[in-house]
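Changelog note: in this version the structure field was regenerated for every chain. One regenerated record is shown below for reference.
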Amino acid sequence: MKIAVAMSGGVDSSAAAALLKEQGHELIGFTMQLWNQRRNVNTDENGDPLPSRCCSLDDVYDARRVAEKLGFPFYVLNLEREFEESVVEPFVASYLSGETPIPCVACNSRLKFAALDKMARSLDCDKVATGHYARVFHDKKADRYRLFRGANHSKDQSYFLWELTQQQLSRAYFPLGEMYKDEVRGLARAADLFIADKPESQEICFVPDGKYSEFIDRYLGAEGRENELPTSGDIVTSVGEKLGEHSGLHRYTIGQRRGLGIAHDKPLYVTQIERAKNQIVVGEENELESLESTARGVNWIAFDTPTEPVRANVKVRYRHDPAPATIHPLPDAHARIVFDHPQRAITPGQATIFYNGDEVVGGGWIARDDQV
């Protein structure tokens, strides 16, 4: 096949390219320039750039060297404007509204796959390959593409792919879906790729230090939009007792215990972020548990939107063991999720994924009360 390969400059995408090349496919490599590191948003208090191991100019250079080593053409797509509009701005807006967003899902479905597939089609490529640990199969009987977790569950990345449409899945190719990380590094070494031992990137690419609220402060400051930052407000208990003041809703997340700046005879956690009242609600650990949540923007993959409740195992964040639940479809791509047992810290803005064994049945975004 003729395959467009998304190349990040990391081990996984490079090893995927090496494997496809070894299998005899014709490859065209693409790296997406997503974030302008020269905008002085990601700098420390001295004005020095914060280190980044994802989507940096060094990564673009590494991806180019890998393509040269493996002997296939390579291009850089400048998607900085689209990335800011589709990923960064929604990320900032989500935090300002009291959510805890996960931008990598939207980046994959709405930007990377969309842009790459458009480019791949213009070059008559049959598939778009990435280094994700996931699997996709075509169900001939149902004439439907089905998404599955990667064989290595500890590295599985299906959580980030649930928004992919049937059209996108029909073109997606995940060469590493059956592999484990040590096998992938071994493959890179066998291909004599210099990135074989390159460290993994764990942070969100445009927030290299992992300090989200500080990024938002810097970003809005650089844009001259400081007036959009949340003002201080009250920290209260579930019964309305004021315990202190917060410094802006975007500095807190559901389940947070440290850094609240309040004294109490028992450990307290953030249990709610009340956008309308500009309040942080705190409570004891048992108050974090909930039997229900509502999802918005639901995308069903295994089948068309159902009319009856669906049983599935549901994740409420990436590092969460799927828990048995009943999903009740609602109008306008919403769904009510009722768990068999209470789940801890269900957080608006996070993705919630529905699994049947290893298959991704569908997914959605955990909604705030005012989005239901």
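Spot check on this record: The longest helix spans residues 103-122. The helical segments are 11-22, 57-70, 80-96, 103-122, 166-171, 181-190, 212-222.
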